[in-house]
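The data layer described in this paper is built around a simple, fixed record for each protein. We quote a single record here, exactly as it is kept in our systems:
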Amino acid sequence: MPAKNQRELAEKRFGTLSIPQLTEVQAAWLAALVDGEGTIGIWRSRRSDGGAVWHYTGVMQVSNTCAELLAHASNILEGCCWKITVRNTKNVKLKHHKPLYRLDLSRRAVPYIVEQILPFLIVKKEQAKLLLKYYHVVHNAPLSTSEDHEMFEHFYLEMRALNARGSP
């Protein structure tokens, strides 16, 4: 199925997604934020109906204790931000702990934004490259087979290794 038709089907099902064209300064700022406070990865989860097949999703998140910082990132992303959530508010055991805010990028926007910030990434450049490869495979195989799931699992495990603590 051509890319245009896939995008049209997604827009019909989920609504129109407007992807901002970031300026060089915005892309560099966002890349620095993701490098320092963010996550680029591939998540694996079971389907909601309890099926035996894994579901893989590309993600980009940024967490910080400063809500204003994430609000600024959300403004730059112009509607590509899926949500900003607050964590650690009820279970804060120590009084000096602050609430943690997390910005989640819309899953449909992830490859477009990652592609724009890729030239400026340093720490998470390899994760971004792998994520874009993953999206290329998913894009070319909309109806996945068992061989595709093996490939998705390989991408997941490779990303997990890149994101492991202590990895270069």
Observations:
- The longest strand covers residues 54-64.
- The beta strands are 38-46, 54-64, 81-87, 100-105.
- The CA atoms of residues 3 and 139 lie 8 Å apart.
